[in-house]
Design goal:
By secondary structure, the chain is mainly beta. It is built from four helices and 34 strands. The strands form nine sheets. Strands 10, 15, 16, 17, 19, 20, 21 and 23 form an eight-stranded antiparallel sheet that branches. The chain has a five-stranded antiparallel sheet with strand order 27-26-31-32-34.
Length: 417
């Protein structure tokens, strides 16, 4: 009996052991990151931490691995991403079995502390330059800019350098500023004259022309005999007048607009227009001009309405106020007209945060955008507000930090008003 009882106990123990089941592994089914894109600036905010979430939370083998496809641009260790130099890198987090991944695109910039408004304007103005090579033996010849401005140099033109005749191979350099973004990004603004205390002008186009031989500019003065013909596209009706103005760029000081002299422009034989005016014909303002350099077509913005002085206070990350045409300073303020090519710079300083328009110069009831932007030590900011001009108006703009590309996009969007 004792032997039989012991055998039964052993059999029972064996039976229980053979029926026990092993626990199944719980696999990782997903990984997510708290940020899918990241922007770092070397020397300013050059590192950030990415947080990875593994699902399910109770997964076995939940260990993850981090990697960068461009470790010379941005490196990563345990989720901490560090930007090293300008460029783009993709940070990848991967499950231990290599089957599940999540990525973050990292854009790294290097801040240039020497980059300010003056460099910003100069850089963007240069993008608008057109360069053409020609020989005087090929004349007459017409050169067309990207915006449709046409410059025709006639045969027999009298180019000189230091009053000595110039011929042979030459280079034409030209700018055409027709849209608000062209005007702002070239460091200019629409003109202003004192006319019964009402003087902002509406632009029909700015043009700059230079002719060089061996990299040196020829003399500006040409005269009206065999003058250059300039054609500026317009959507104005035939017969609509514009005035011709000449500009003088004083290095690092200002671009000064003034009355055109009769020896470089004179409208003869048309009683409808003054001597310094022309009319639109077949979608363009076309005229002969006896000088190189700056020429501007514009007219008074408004007449016969009430006018106001507008004050603008700018808050946020500002610098010093930009001077007229932006030769000095960091922060600009413009009124950009709606349905009118008016880009009026407000630069008369009231205090460190406030500027105003010229006295009684803004037509009451006109609509547009008041904008401000600042470029200082490699940082960029922008603000805008839709406004309708009112008497004794005060506007507040709060600058917000953006990147350089976003600032350019915001300025170019003004062309759609």
């Amino acid at each position: 009996m004792k032997k039989l009882f012991l055998f039964s106990i052993l059999c029972t123990g064996i039976f229980v052991f053979s029926c026990k089941k092993e626990k199944a592994d719980i696999p990782v089914t997903g990984i997510s990151l708290d940020q899918n894109t990241l922007e770092l600036v070397v020397g300013v905010n050059d590192s950030a931490t990415l947080i990875a979430t593994v699902t399910p939370a109770n997964a076995d083998y939940s260990k993850i691995e981090w990697s960068s496809d461009n470790p010379e641009i941005a490196k990563v260790k345990e989720g901490v991403v560090t930007g090293l130099t300008e460029g783009t890198a993709t940070i990848t987090v991967t499950s231990a079995d290599g089957l599940i991944k999540a990525i973050c695109t990292v854009k790294v910039k290097v801040r240039d502390f020497t980059y300010g408004a003056k460099k910003f304007i100069a850089e963007n103005k240069a993008k608008g330059k057109h360069t053409f090579n020609f020989n005087t033996s090929e004349l007459p010849k017409t050169f067309t800019l990207r915006n449709g401005v046409k410059i025709t140099i006639p045969a027999g033109i009298n180019f000189t350098k230091s009053s000595q005749p110039v011929s042979g191979p030459l280079t034409l350099e030209a700018y055409g500023m027709l849209k608000p973004s062209d005007i702002i990004l070239s460091g200019t603004s629409t003109n202003y004259i004192r006319y019964q205390d009402k003087g902002y002008l509406k632009s029909d186009g700015f043009v700059f022309i230079d002719v060089k031989q061996n990299g040196e500019s020829v003399d500006e003065y040409i005269g009206l005999n065999n003058a250059i013909n300039i054609s500026i596209p317009t959507d104005e009706d035939d017969g609509t007048a514009t005035m011709i103005w000449v500009g003088e760029e004083i290095a690092d000081t200002a671009l000064v607009w003034g009355d055109v002299n009769e020896d470089i422009f004179f409208n003869r034989g048309n009683d409808k227009f003054n001597w310094n005016e022309i009319g639109a014909v077949n979608g363009s303002f076309a005229f002969n001009f006896g000088s190189l350099g700056w020429v501007n077509c514009d007219v008074l913005w408004r007449t016969g309405v009430s006018f106001a002085t507008v004050t603008v206070t700018v808050t946020g990350k500002t610098g010093t106020w930009a001077s007229y045409q932006g030769y000095t300073g960091d922060t600009f303020v413009f009124f950009v007209g709606k349905g009118a090519n008016v880009i009026a710079q407000l630069y008369t300083q009231i205090n460190a945060t406030t500027v105003q328009s010229y006295y009684n110069s803004m037509p009451v009831g006109d609509e547009g955008k008041m904008i401000a932007f600042s470029v200082k030590e490699g940082e960029f900011s922008f603000a805008s507000q839709d406004v309708t001009i009112a008497a004794d108006q005060q506007v507040t703009l709060n600058l917000k930090s953006i990147d350089k590309e976003a600032l350019l996009d915001a300025i170019k969007a003004l062309d759609q008003q």
